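Sample log: Alpha-beta hydrolase superfamily lysophospholipase.
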Amino acid sequence: MTARRLHARHGAAAIEHIPFRASDGTELALARVTRANGSEGAADGERPAVLLLHGLTASSDMFVLPETRNLVDVLLDAGYEPWLLDWRGSCRLPHNDDDRAGYSFDDVALYDIPEAVARVRERIGGRRLFVVAHCLGALSLSLSMTAGLVPGLAGVVAQGVFLTPKLAASTRLRMHFGFEVLRRRIRHVPVDFRKAGFRSRYTPLFALASLGADCPDPTCQMLHNSAWSVGASLFVHDQLDRRTHERLADLFGSAPMCVIPHLRRIELAHTVVRWNLSDGRYRALPENALDAADRIDCPVLLMSGSENGLWLDANKLCHDVLAARHPRLDVRYVEIPGYGHVDPFIGRSAALDVFGHIVEFLDERR
Ligand SMILES: [Zn+2]
């Protein structure tokens, strides 16, 4: 079982796939990106590394969209060495659709992220290492950081959410009550109508997602109008390139129900908390990440689209809380006007509107 191919533009970037299995046995995917034409100059050995972490059910594909100027292109041009981790919630991994594979964000924070950081460090030696993380990749990273498992990063960019999750009232209701009913019937919420079939147990979910939708595409409705049935929205529709819109089912996989109990506990606590309280393997993780925020030892850029339809202004709240409680921490907040949740990375104009903020933050600390 291996990860499916990345959709990076042929010829623009060379992707070196590095075999990577987490120490609990889970097969993950790690890749280093360089220029495809082998034009690595001597100075390229000095490039700071940037590890990119996708959101739940997305994959590293979200950073290498061939149809737009993507974040990997921009980082290469700016003199960085991008690294891509597909953690266990990636739709590129067979694991994500495997009904037997249960996991929580504790596993991502304890195994996937620290072990990927260690593998990258084995390769880059003493070069600086940044992490840019999206959504539940960023939330899991916050748990790794407050556990002290990834010390000494040069800086972290967290998009959408970090230590202080915040959902709309309607999303909370669906997640706490609707999903409790759903969880007994299904193991995943699919996004690809073609795979789910026209008449299936998932049909009511697609019907629900279509209510009030302006776009006729069922996969788009599931993501833009419903966010896997929690009633949130993952992007501002007009920000997507037509070609990105046509392959949303490639970019996002089905949402596994196994993570819902942990998400619910996190949501009720309004901060990132550990799921496994009695299992000694997870003792390294803090029970409450916000209370352990004094362990964050690097600058943090919190980012969010002004129209984030999933986590709302959670990252602004996170900035305010961290700035008040930890005045010596270098934390800043950037809001991207007119953008939603995931379009700051996959939007057609993200290179113009968003990536400059990321590169500016990295450049100040390279
Ligand atoms: Zn659409």
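Observation: Residues 105-124 form the longest helix (20 residues).
Observation: The chain has 14 helices and ten strands.
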